[in-house]
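Might you be able to consider the sequence and fold that I enclose below?
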Amino acid sequence: MIEYFFTFGIVIILTAIAQYCYKKNKILSYVCSFLSICILSLIAALRRLDVGVDIKVYGLDFFNACRYFSKMSSYIAFYKNEQLYFALNYIVFHLTQNIRVLFFIMQFFISSIVYIIAYDNMKKRDTNILLYVIAYLFLWFNTSLNILRQSLAIFVILYAFKYIENKNYFAYYIAVIIATLFHSSAIVCVVIPLVDYIAKKKNWKTYLTLSIGVIYFILFNIRIVAMLLNKINVMPDKYLLYLSRDGNMITYYAILKLIMIVVIAMYFKKSKDNEINRTLFSICVYDVVWYTLSYFIKYGYRISYYFLPHMILLLPRMEADLRKSKGRSTFILVSIILLIVYWVVRYSVVKYDGTIPYNFYWEV
């Protein structure tokens, strides 16, 4: 665990320097951010292959399978879906035959998106780069070491949120299509423009509550719905195998996420009431709702993974809106404490995602 906190500490210091010196020395700011991205990418690349459950579930097998295909098209056609992920695997394998290069590239891609979003929002609305990075480190970095394909898809979706903000829904749906080429489950993000539509309504809280009720009604009847869809050949037989429950493994995270939502809601009234903040807040609420999907469908909680990272966007915006309020410092302090508690519980106590303990590849 010390490896993560040491890494996070260095990245946070470098990002703080990047934030502080941006107006005076943009080159130094970008250099510090680039170094942070490289450090995170190296931590991802240099880990032992037992750091992250999905590496042995599919990551290593998919990568090593490239040796049996002389053509990329044949390799991609064999797996049929998620073409961009398999194309990346194939290219890296035939250039280096080293899966650690793949890990480096993937984390570099994800971390770069976080910093691009942070700089873009800092320029447009004077948000704090450091808060974006802190939220990413404690909400998602460890999970990105576990789920490989889906993390790439998720951060394509997160980057594409700017199209929602600019009301360019066509570009957003193109981004969703691109994300599905990394992980097919990204198709669920077609509903996010609908969330944005609800958030713009005058009685958006009422619509939000009603929609949650509808979702839970569907969830409690999910087996009936799935059987009907299967009968009319909309849902393939293989998906019926997922209609089993994962038990109460999600309770800890659901409670912690709910606490975060409550804290945000408390300060939401003090911040500027704008439609984009409403949309982001609603997406974070839906994250908690969809996370309970695992009580009804095996691995269903992974759908919520497309919603959770939007908190990386919401927290800095809330902080910027609260700068003239007395509650700003308390909001920052409470948010960071909750993020750290979430990280400790999820990754260290429950050891979910299998990223603790961290071991370098040369350690026995």
Notes: The CA atoms of residues 134 and 293 lie 27 Å apart. The chain has a mean pLDDT of 86. The first helix runs from residue 2 to 21.
